[in-house]
Amino acid sequence: MAQPKNDHHDAKREGPSPYARVDDVLRSLQSPGVEELCDEAADAAGRGHTDRALKIYAEVLSQDPLNTTARFGRACVRALAGDGVSALEDVGCNVRQVEKYLGVTGRRDDPCQVANVYHQLAYVLMQCEKYVDAAKAYARAIEFDPGDSELWAGRAWAHFLSGNTQQALDDATTAARKAGDANIEVVASVARLYLESGDVDRASDYIERMLHRASPDSAFLEAIVLRLRDRADWAKALKLTEGASKLGADPSLRVLRAHLLASTGDLDGGIQLVRGFDFATHSRNWYNAACVYGVCAKNRPPAADWVSSGIDCLDRAVAAGWDDAKSLLEDEDLEIFRNSASFAAVLAKCSSRQK
Questions:
Q1: How far, in Å, CA of 289 to CA of 281, rounded?
Q2: Which of 104, 112, 121, 349 is the most exposed place for a label (fewest CB within 10 A)?
Q3: Averaged pLDDT for residues 299-306
Q4: Same domain? 106 vs 61
Q5: What is the pLDDT of residues 162-185, one digit of tens each?
Q6: Do 277 and 310 sit in the same domain of this protein?
Q7: Within a domain: residue 245?
């Protein structure tokens, strides 16, 4: 069975939305049209039009130099473009504003808004890979809003990426406790951190906790299930895929569950999930569907129809772009197909793609 080529999670991007608003503690948007311009810049950045976004933010700041939304938006764009120095200058301007406010008034009656400014600073520091400083910024934010689970999850990642694994896990546990069932994204972030730290059991426990409300990212869930499968923890792997299937699982998880069922003896259950299902142009899913047929055919001979269906799935995989001829020759799930003339034809097509 083929695994995803890359299940890497870009952990440094854990944090608040890049375009969160900060209004009350600082100053409200006053210039006409400024809010619309910030929305336009955020949209441009989201589409990858960096130069356009920076130009719009510069226009906003020329009208309103202390506009916190534009400062943070531009900081995010600059950080993602590799200009960490300028990014930190922008977000630092917002921090100086809030610290000046606190110093002048001594007021702490709107702590969540103040915490959000330090959250923004931590977010940009994470983008710049300054994880120790990011942990400090998260700590400052937590001082003002200790009940915000996102802050604890963010600091957990900052600790983890700076090498302080135990502190990271402590913060992650706190984040999950504070999140409860109210913030699924935080629970998913905590699960990712446990998976990155090598604790597959805790990661799967947190994912299972999510599944009664929402389906996590399919690639991430697939990564956990594959690790469980590789250590033969079939029961837990099947439980996670069952929960995801009830929420309308991604086709990749559908075929993975089919393979798990076939591998644990439920041949009919595995076949039922792949028979007649259209995996469109996803070559890996077609390939893995073929593997399901292969496992089933090998364990219930004679099974000429399953062999035929499996080779048809391989043909569809090659048509969709599968070009790994070596896997067709070496994958033990496909062993029962290799004496077939139809398999030889598919192999020839696949080999020709490599030339």
A1: 13
A2: 104
A3: 86
A4: yes
A5: 999 999 999 999 999 999 877 889
A6: yes
A7: no
79, 128 contact by CB (below 8 A): yes
Q: Which helix (H) or strand (E) holds 34?
A: helix 34-46
Q: What is the pLDDT of residues 282-298, one digit of tens each?
A: 999 999 999 999 999 99
Does 58 lie in the same domain as 10?
A: yes
- Give the C-alpha separation, 287 to 322, whole Å: 8
What's 70's domain CATH number? 1.25.40.10
| Final residue before a domain boundary, out of 84, 117, 146 | 146
Residue 127 has pLDDT above 70, yes or no: yes
Displacement of CA 296 from its chain's centroid (Å):
32
With 70 as the cut, is the pLDDT of residue 9 above it? no
**Is 14 part of any domain?**
yes
Strands (E), the chain: none
Identify whether residues 217 and 171 lie together within a single domain: yes
30 belongs to a structural domain: yes
Q: Classify residue 235 as exposed, middle or buried by CB count within 10 Å of its CB (0-12, 13-18, 19+).
A: exposed
Rg (CA), the chain: 25
Q: CB count, 10 Å around CB of 55? A: 12
287-317 burial, b at 16+ Cβ within 10 Å, e below that, comes to: bbbbbbbbbbbbeeeebeebbebbbbbbbbb
C-alpha span between 330 and 113 (Å, rounded): 58
The predicted-structure confidence for 193-229, as pLDDT tens digits, reads as follows 999 999 999 999 998 888 767 767 888 889 999 999 9
C-alpha dist (Å) from residue 140 to 89, 151, 193, 254: 18, 10, 22, 44
Task: Give the domain range for residue 335.
Answer: 250-355
Backbone angles phi, psi at 31, to 5 degrees: -75, 135
24-35: per-residue pLDDT in tens? 333 333 454 778
CB 306 within 8 Å of CB 19: no
> Which pLDDT does position 114 carry in this prediction?
87
